[in-house]
Design brief:
This protein has about 300 residues and is of the alpha+beta class. The protein has one domain (about 1-270): 4-Layer Sandwich (Metallo-beta-lactamase, Chain A). About 25% of the residues lie in helices and about 25% in strands. It has helices at about 55-70, 90-95, 105-115, 190-200, 230-235, 235-240, 245-255, 265-270, and strands spanning about 1-10, 15-20, 25-30, 35-40, 45-50, 55, 70-75, 85, 100-105, 130-135, 140, 145-150, 160-165, 165-170, 210, 225-230. The strands form 3 sheets. It has a 7-stranded mixed beta sheet, covered by helices on one side. A 6-stranded mixed beta sheet has the order 11-12-13-14-15-16. A 3-stranded antiparallel beta sheet has the order 6-5-8. Strand 9 (about 100-105), helix 3 (about 105-115) and strand 10 form a beta-alpha-beta unit. It is globular.
């Protein structure tokens, strides 16, 4: 289930975050108050790994909010294929008719993970599972709101940030200041690339609102999702320790060596590189996930 986080109204956009406790994920609705057009960013499909059950509870709660507010979904936007939760982009498209989109480098991620899963040639790695693939600096609209795409690799090969006026949806690049930065050790990840992406975000105006995609509530504090460029520069625990690229790469890679892989990575990626679509049913009518053994052999053991 999700918990709605109070809307953030600034300038001409309204941003509402929905916190999904199971995975610590935040999905967003960003709306133009003039036209009532909105976009859904990084939608979550509920998955229980122990039972293999999927539900649309979180997705339906967000859609109910959109209907209550009188919004009209214009886009369903992914920042990258997630490793820790299933995407509900496909389900939301079916329910709303809004087109889906992601960064154009997703094709490289598809090729990489297709090899991991040993999928047949019939699986397309051209990004056709989404309606639109955005290059760096692409511009589009949410109602009357101007949106710009910023290529921000490091966490993945294809991560992007969406700039909507004074708001930036940065997902797994920077966390809240007390949690530092995102890991960069997934296949195709790069701590060096992450450093340069962070510098690009830090070059935005000081009062730019930064909306992160995860919060793990360190110390038991309440869930948070919004900071500013100035706040991150002054308070981010990793950036304060690492003032140079060399220092940051050493810090990030050292930290990543201690982290277990996310519990859902091998399940989630085969859904999320399909644009949030579950595998097709087999002859008995059931859908199956395929888990490659020893695909990530150097990952530390986790619970």
């Amino acid at each position: 289930m999700t918990a709605e986080i109070a809307p953030s109204l600034h300038g001409r956009s309204i941003v509402t975050g929905f916190y999904e406790k199971r995975t610590g994920s935040v999905q967003y609705v960003v709306a133009d108050p003039d036209t009532k057009r909105c976009a859904i960013i990084d939608p979550v499909l509920d998955f229980e790994a122990k039972s293999g059950a999927t539900t649309t509870s979180s997705a339906d709660e967000l859609l109910a909010y959109i209907e209550q507010q009188g919004y009209r979904p214009e886009w369903i936007l992914d920042t990258h294929p997630h490793a820790d939760h299933f995407s509900a982009a496909g389900y939301r498209k079916d329910r709303t008719g809004a087109p889906t989109a992601i960064g154009e480098k997703v094709v490289e991620v598809q090729k990489l993970w297709k090899a991991f899963y040993n999928w047949p040639d019939s699986f397309p790695t051209d990004g056709s599972q989404w309606d639109r693939l955005f290059p760096d600096r692409e511009r589009f609209k949410i109602g009357n709101l101007d949106v710009e795409v910023m290529f921000c690799p490091g966490h993945t090969l294809c991560s992007i940030t969406y700039l909507v006026g004074d708001a930036a949806f940065i997902h797994d690049t920077l966390f809240m200041p007390d949690s530092g930065t995102a890991r960069a050790d997934f296949p195709g990840g790069s701590a060096k690339a992450l450093w340069h992406s962070i510098q690009r975000i830090m070059a935005l105006p000081d009062d730019t609102r930064l909306f992160t995609g995860h919060d793990y509530m360190p110390g038991g504090r309440a869930a948070q999702r919004e900071s500013t460029v100035d706040q991150q520069r002054r308070e981010n625990s990793h950036l304060l320790k690492a003032a140079t690229e060399e220092e940051f790469v050493a810090l990030r890679e050292g930290r990543d060596r201690e982290l277990p892989m996310p519990k859902l990575i091998l399940s989630a990626l085969q859904v999320n590189i399909r644009g949030g679509r579950l595998p097709e049913p087999e002859s008995n009518g059931r859908r199956y996930l395929k888990i490659p053994l020893d695909a990530l052999p150097n990952a530390p053991w986790g619970d």
